[in-house]
Hints:
Blueprint: H1 7-20, H2 26-29, E1 35-44, E2 53-60, E3 66-71, E4 80-83, H3 86-99, E5 117-124, E6 127-133, H4 140-152
Antiparallel strand pairs: 1-2, 1-5, 2-3, 3-4, 5-6
Helix pairs in contact: 3-4
Amino acid sequence: MVDQAHPEQQAALLRAIAERLGLPPVKLLVKEPGVLGVYRVTVYYHDRRARDSCATLVDDRRQEPRLSTCYRGAFGQRPITYTLTEDRYEAFVRALQKLRFDHLRDQPGMPLYGLDFWMIERAAGSFVRSVIVAPQTAQGAHAQLVGIIREHLPEALRAIE
């Protein structure tokens, strides 16, 4: 773990995962009729011990919140979909609000390689925010963000070898 990377490098790496999976950006998903909010967790495994994944949580006023997880190179890139209860969804949203996710910046000091990276995105209306973390080295608010994802959206982190 030598050079410190610019967050743009990790962002490009993580956004490429969603693109390769054929997933639209969150800023487009949130514009669909009835969609109130979109959250996405993209996971990159630096050592290829598991397949990179992208889990998208959509809050649609016409149905219960649903989480769809796609894995690169698995299941024909078709998503595994889970329905969340309103209570569970609201607990997740409240935890992010309490953390002040919308004001959080990318984790500082991440190396270019040698660690797993997560990008957590949120879109609502015309607002889009993303935060990149390296869960193995996250501290402070970034470690709390990792804990929130692990606690409230464990399906988004299920690894497929």
